[in-house]
Automatic annotation (TrEMBL):
It comes from Nitrosotalea sinensis. CDD domains: Zn_ADH_like1. It comes from the Archaea. Pfam families: ADH_N, ADH_zinc_N. This is Zn-dependent oxidoreductase.
């Protein structure tokens, strides 16, 4: 079968110099695994880290890819929930399932967990014609959701669902500020908040503001403007302020988000794309009883909840472009530069 393989790290992000489509043996399922034919896979930034060998070296030779969707072609002897022909999508959070965190229902807090396609291998990731996963690491895809949409959703949908539903305990009618609404997690953040009938204020760069409204945001604000937080404050005034701030930007906009929260409000964060060394005015924390919550990935049940609403057409994936395995280097360069990028980039065999 075909797979996108590299056996050394890329100097200066020159992916073309390391990526090639190779012929490797088809997988056979272990007793607890399913094998599925990959119909679509989606790029994530951890592909870049993998090819750089930074911040952690990944097993070589390596197949990247943490999001894949397709149909089951073989099941192991102990598999109980899947059969040949089922449509599935990967749940790439591979936790140990036996530690205290896992058995407490917090698989995302498992210290032994690995991200499939990033830390797994050699030769175990989404960019291959067939792949294998434990049945606990695949979810059924509703009939009304295409493989492309499912692959584009998996990891980002999970992250956004866990942030708002699992961590911030979003409630109907709240006012939610989605930072960076044009990104993968941001676009799902907007849609999940609207699913809960919240007032949604989304921020983004000027070229993406129309897109944020198309996704359902009630208001869209250019967060590159120096007085962006004043604009948000004005908008949120009739609602009494912001209940939940959804962040993955970090440093540059951190403290402004804290000032916008109402008393007892919540800031939930899953990243820091502009830097981690943020200034915090602690008065906003203690006087206002602010909750600051960290969030990474989520549970398989949360992914399934998100997929359910995709099946009901209440949430959709945004797909930027589709590349063949042969053009994987070009696809990754596009993700790295981020120029004009809206939504996920897919790779297909
Ligand atoms: Zn565990």
């Amino acid at each position: 079968m075909k797979a996108v393989v590299y056996d050394k790290y890329a100097p200066n992000d020159d992916y073309k110099s390391i990526l090639s489509v190779k012929d490797i043996p088809e997988p056979t399922p272990k007793p607890n695994e399913v094998v599925f034919r990959v119909r679509a896979a989606a790029l994530n930034y951890n592909d870049i880290w993998g090819m750089r060998g930074q911040p952690v070296p990944v097993p070589l030779p390596h197949i990247s890819g943490s999001d894949a969707a397709g149909e089951v072609v073989a099941v192991g002897a102990d598999v109980t929930n899947f059969k040949v022909g089922d449509r599935v999508v990967s749940h790439s959070n591979m936790s140990c399932r036996v530690c205290e965190a896992c058995t407490d229902g917090r698989e995302y807090d498992c210290t032994k967990r690995t991200i499939w396609g990033f830390q797994t291998g050699p030769l175990w990731g989404a960019y291959s014609e067939f792949t294998h996963l434990p049945e606990v690491n695949v979810a059924k895809v509703p009939d009304s959701v295409s493989f492309d949409e499912a692959a584009a959703a998996s990891m980002t949908l999970l992250t956004s669902w866990h942030m708002l539903v699992g961590r911030a305990r979003i409630r109907p009618g709240q006012t939610v500020l989605i930072m960076g609404g044009g990104s993968g997690v941001g676009s799902f953040g907007i849609q999940i908040a609207k699913l809960y009938n919240c007032n949604v204020i989304a921020t983004g760069s000027p070229d993406k503001l129309d897109k944020l409204k198309e996704l359902g945001a009630d208001f869209a604000v250019d967060h590159r403007k120096p007085d962006w937080s004043k604009e948000v404050r004005q908008i949120a005034k009739p609602f009494g302020g912001i209940d939940i701030a959804f962040d993955h930007i970090g440093q540059t906009h951190w403290n402004d988000q804290l000032t916008l929260l109402k008393y007892g409000g919540t800031l939930v964060t899953c990243g820091a794309t502009t830097g981690y060394d943020a200034k915090t005015d602690l008065r906003h924390i203690f006087f206002k009883g602010t909750n600051i919550l960290g969030s990474t990935q989520g549970t398989k049940a949360e992914l399934e909840q998100g997929l359910y609403w995709m099946g009901k057409k209440k949430i959709k994936s945004i797909i930027d472009s589709v590349y063949s395995f042969e053009n994987a280097a070009e696809a990754h360069t596009k993700m790295l530069t981020g120029k004009g990028l809206v939504g996920k980039i897919l790779l297909k065999p």
